[in-house]
Write a structure and sequence with these properties.
By secondary structure, the protein is of the alpha/beta class. It is globular and about 60 Å long. Helices cover 49% and strands 16% of the residues. The protein starts with a strand and ends with a helix.
Length: 370
């Protein structure tokens, strides 16, 4: 029997690995799989595990003393080595670019276990942007045996780094699978969190205003660009009647900035971190998204939404090429210009083919492991 260990730890891991769990449940009987959670994220992640109906078989930490990246990686590495020794998997699957993924790939490599990297090949030209994710994924790439690439561009990135074609699998991004699954569940099940969002939109009289979703959490933005981003948002609010919905990340610096910014901008509506089902319901209802998120660049075209990426660069050029991301900038004037141009143009053209796949990425990944 072939055994597969899936390693999660962050909120995006749950979203993007859940379709693999679903696919494994319906796969051949000679596959055995288990989930290990490093608990890199706590609080934000637990409601998502419940929504996606996942139950980790192994749960590490949380590591109380791991307040920095190096401490977390070292503690997670030690815990993952124990898990791998206990389960003896044939494959370890890691996702993306988190410290969890890096620790998981390294632990598997040390144990002589093959590594499958889900969402492989994303790159920016700047090794510290995003930090530490860009270097994490480059290092994971060196440890990986099968690279599950979401797009042709990501495959080309890895070819340029010398990865042979027989180690590359074009599959699409599992976030499309996850989003389709989540939307179907929202349609068939009454969820209080979704109803709360509907009531919020109605109570704010949002039908008479443009609705903008704002998310911020990147370290590089917190260190350098909050003032510029804030000025850009302020300029938008001065010229466009809008409600700006801001689910505030739990990072204390984001919380402090949001509170101060709301005093200057009454159209800013602060929200707590939202469960996934509530967040995608809000995203569906908004006219425009301002974000520094990676996953939202992939979710936007799936939902037919437009976004402005609040970063210096992107590892997902497909989102800009498809028109889902209107621009990539941290400049206040450019943020304002992009938003005003979008709203002045009126209804936008229908999106073409989703650059991130057809919702069958997980099936393609599992079939390659059989």
């Amino acid at each position: 029997m072939k055994k597969i260990l899936l390693i999660i730890g962050s909120r995006p891991d749950v979203i993007k690995m859940a379709p693999l769990v679903f696919a494994l449940r319906t796969a051949a009987s000679h596959l055995e799989s288990r989930i290990c959670d490093t608990n890199q994220h706590t609080g934000l992640k637990e409601p998502m595990l419940r929504f996606f109906e996942l139950q980790p078989d192994y749960s590490l930490g949380p590591f109380a003393e791991a307040n920095d990246i190096s401490s977390f990686v070292s503690e997670a590495l030690r815990g993952l080595e124990t898990v791998i020794a206990d389960f003896s998997p044939d494959w370890v699957l890691v996702h993306g670019d988190t410290s969890t993924a890096f620790a998981g790939a390294l632990a598997a490599f040390y144990a002589g276990v093959r590594v499958g990297h889900v969402e492989a090949g994303l790159r920016t030209p700047m090794k510290r942007s995003p930090f530490p994710e860009e270097m994490n994924r480059r290092l994971i790439g060196q440890l990986t045996d099968l690279h599950f690439c979401p797009t042709l561009q990501t495959m080309d990135n890895l070819r340029k780094e010398g990865v042979p074609d027989n180690h590359l699998v074009l599959c699409g991004n599992t976030i499309v699978d996850a989003l389709q699954w989540a939307l179907a569940k929202i349609d068939r099940v009454h969820l209080p969190e979704v109803e709360a969002i509907r009531q919020l939109l109605s109570a704010e009289g949002a039908q008479n205003k443009k609705k903008i979703l704002l998310t911020l959490h990147r370290r590089e933005n917190l260190d350098r660009y909050l003032a510029d981003i804030g000025e850009g948002i302020r300029r938008i609010a001065e010229h466009i009647p809008c409600s700006i919905f801001f689910p505030v990340h739990r990072n204390p610096r984001v919380v402090e900035w949001a509170g101060q910014f709301q005093e200057e901008l009454p159209d800013l509506i602060l929200l707590p971190p939202l469960p996934y089902e509530a967040f995608i319901s809000l995203m569906k209802a908004c006219d425009l998204i301002l974000t520094d998120s990676g996953g939202i660049q992939e979710e936007a075209p799936t939902l037919g939404k437009k976004a402005i990426l609040l970063r210096e660069t992107t590892e997902r050029p497909e989102a800009t090429h498809s028109g889902a991301v209107l621009g990539v900038t941290v400049d206040a004037r450019e943020i304002e210009h992009l938003a005003r141009a979008f709203f002045e143009k009126g209804p936008f053209e229908a999106a073409g083919e989703n650059p991130f796949g057809d919702g069958h990425a997980a099936e393609k990944i599992i079939s390659r492991l059989l």
